[in-house]
Amino acid sequence: MKNLIKRMLFHILNPIFLVLYKKYLPDFKQDFNCAPVFMIRELPGGEKEWQGKKHRKAYLGNTHPWNRYFNKPLSTRPKNLRDIENFLRKCKYVSDRETRSQKDFWEPPDIFEKRRKGDCEDHSIWAWRQLHDMGFKARLVIGTSESCGHAWVHIYVNGRCYLLEATHKYGWLPELSDYKADWSIEHEKEKQFLFFDHFKVAISV
Known about the structure:
Number of domains: 1
Strand content: 15-25%
Strand order of the largest sheet: 1-7-6-5-8-9-2
Helix content: 25-40%
Radius of gyration: 17 Å
Order of helices and strands: HHEHEHEHHEHEEEEE
Distance between the termini: 39 Å
CATH topology: C8orf32 fold
Number of helices: 7
Shape: globular
CATH class: Alpha Beta
Structural class: alpha+beta
Number of strands: 9
């Protein structure tokens, strides 16, 4: 009975909460030409603060060679961030133990969009690939959130840096103070990737 009441209250109050909370979201028209998106938030300090220290190579736990995540065509064609968010909200968050019977498996985006389920790396790699294909300067980020290993995406546009939480399914923003970036990866051009460490940068809000 208590769970039923909680669900009813959530469905009644959540639309009201979203309308009110939407007023506090950044105006994305200048940077993304779309309405506000709940899974994204601007990072303090701007793009320079989140450049990181460049490295030639880094092994970050990827299951496949990096180019494998970019060399297969995708069936989905989002036009903007809102389309990316709408697709990801329909995907189910499940562990690699459940999907692949492995401790860690980074799913290529062409497979993820067909299965529509996976963990943080799978969601984030798909978003990273789509943003890159749309012409944005974007990086896959590996770090921690609430002291647990996690992955998300950084988007660099007009001197600003945005954090996109690809596993975000609800109508409120992620707390930036929960995130600590360790490494980021950028697809520069065909078969060439850049690696950056962020160990000296902490998010303070």
